[in-house]
Amino acid sequence: MNKIRLWEWVVLDGIRCQVVAIDGATVEVQHANSLRHQKVLASTLVSAAAIEQHREALSDVAKLSRVSPEERARCEFLADVLHNHADESARGLNVEHARQQLAAHGIRVSERQVWRYLAAYRAHGIAGLIDRRRDNGPRPSRVDPRILELIEEELSAQQDASTGTQTRAIRRIGWNAERIGLKIPSRATMFRLLQEHDRGRSSFGSATTRRSKALRPQRTFHGTVATRPGELVEFDSTPLDVIAVLPDGSHGRPELTYAIDVATGTICGTLLRAGATKSVDIGAVLLARMLTPLSKRPGWPATRDQARALLGPGFLPTDEEWQELAETMPLIVPESVTVDRGKVFAGSTFTAACERLEISQIIANPRHPTDKPHVEGGFKRIRDGFVQYLAGFTGGSVADRGAHPKDDAVWTVDELQILLDLWVLTSWQTTPQSGLRLPDIPRRTLSPNQMYQVLAVAAPQVAVGLAEEDYIALMPIAWRTIQPYGINLHGLVYDNDALHPLRGRSSGLPGPARGRWEVRFDPYNLRQVWVRDHRAGSWICAAWTLSALSDQPFSGEVLRAARATLEAGSGPTARGADLLEEITRIQRERAETRTRTKSATALTDRAPILRIVSPPTADETVDTDLSSPPRRLRILE
Description:
Blueprint: E1 9-12, E2 15-23, E3 26-31, E4 37-41, H1 42-48, H2 58-63, H3 69-82, H4 95-104, H5 111-124, H6 145-157, H7 166-179, H8 187-198, H9 207-214, E5 233-239, E6 244-245, E7 251-252, E8 255-261, E9 267-273, H10 279-290, H11 300-311, H12 319-328, E10 336-339, H13 343-346, H14 348-356, E11 360-363, H15 373-385, H16 413-426, E12 433-437, E13 445-446, H17 448-458, H18 468-473, E14 477-480, E15 487-489, E16 492-495, E17 517-522, E18 525-533, E19 538-544, H19 556-570, H20 576-596
Parallel strand pairs: 5-10, 10-11
Antiparallel strand pairs: 1-2, 2-3, 3-4, 5-8, 6-7, 8-9, 12-13, 14-17, 15-16, 16-19, 17-18, 18-19
Helix pairs in contact: 6-7, 6-8, 10-14, 19-20
Domain Integrase catalytic: 225-390
Pfam families: Mu-transpos_C
Region (Disordered): 614-637
């Protein structure tokens, strides 16, 4: 610690002074030139004085930590030899004796060098004896600043240009320097300067990476922190890296839209669509799935039965395990959502749904994926943990794509949706993730289910999901009349005995209804629709008149493919029975194709992508090595 002692030389108001007396909080100093005495407060002296210290500065001592152990030992030995001559009062120095001591340890120096060592030791202590050639401290650049400006301009111009070599950049810099009469440094120096000024911008690497890094804000930015479930949920859409069999027999990549909770890492909901995702899909279907428990979703028992028919009972959880999974799956009600500027999120349907559910929206900056990093990073984890095991996997990029991935495609979009939901339940939600840790136990990683349990205790709240009536209210709307035979929607007839008092009657609703009745439908399960009896304040579920003959739910894509096939064969006057037969054929043909195909399991070498991990007990630690099998493992084949 620096102290002001008697006879210490200080600088006070630009005048060199010497401390001559210290009396408590008062210090008396004597001016060096006028010999005038002055009394000042100690606090004033400490704040204004520049103490002339002849001791080692802390910055000089820090230099010793940057040199090799051998160099540090050499400096310490030199200091031991010169220690007796470090005081300025010692004018004499036995130079020959010092040279002999140094020569005995292999350090041969001249008499002049000994005096240099002594001067450096007196000025900077041991740090002054470091060989400057081995000092790895920064050195000022001797390159013309105008050359550095040309280098920065060239690297900035690489942002939107096609990737080139460093040689091209050096030649361009040389041409620009020649125009203003400058000479660039040597070729080796230019390569070094390009590397130094690149600053991780990937100027000569991947063009996509370079453009992505260029979108980072030119300021210090921090990650998003959420402390409770639902505080911040991120949405995004992207084509899935797998080729699926579409209902019309063609092949294509389905588009995945999903939401992830930042605080717990929980995937709140997923949605796969054969074509581009629409605003109504996200604003109605996905939000409704997110806010409704599994057991209360209309059509959930039928989906579970379809999964058993698809994979067989031996590879799926039992009824007790289904119930346990449904209960442990967190129900997260979003407080705010982060979305990009895509049309599906900027549409009026999604915005109106968020306003109705009192969810605030955060719009990401244009072309800034870093504004929602959790959902962006989740796409890669979904691909690595689930998609790459499916038949028809495209590899993630053209460079990694197989020769004929389309030939391996066997799964339909509806079946992929079921597989994805099962994987989220059994693997994603039960697998510890490196980003889910607690401050008190940073070495232990938690699964999304465990993180939700911890945060639910820290921030107590009860998530109230949507009731069945609220779930129906979020579905797409259509206005229809109720005829004696029922309701005609999408060319299908729906009926229910409860509709009998309403047949042929006007609803009395004004505006776009024009006396018609409000009908809600799930575009991914058209086996039933819901008619709102606004007079009684209830919903009436009307089933398709041929639903008893159909064993699986079907989506609008399947319906359109079946109708297109019938119109191409027998014309537009196809009967309902023919339509049912064609829908059944499309669904059954995909199943038969999987049975005949060698890769019908859609997995490679019995890959454990579906598994149920039982939560650890209090005296167990979470196993973060995913290569080891969990205690309870079900392999999807």
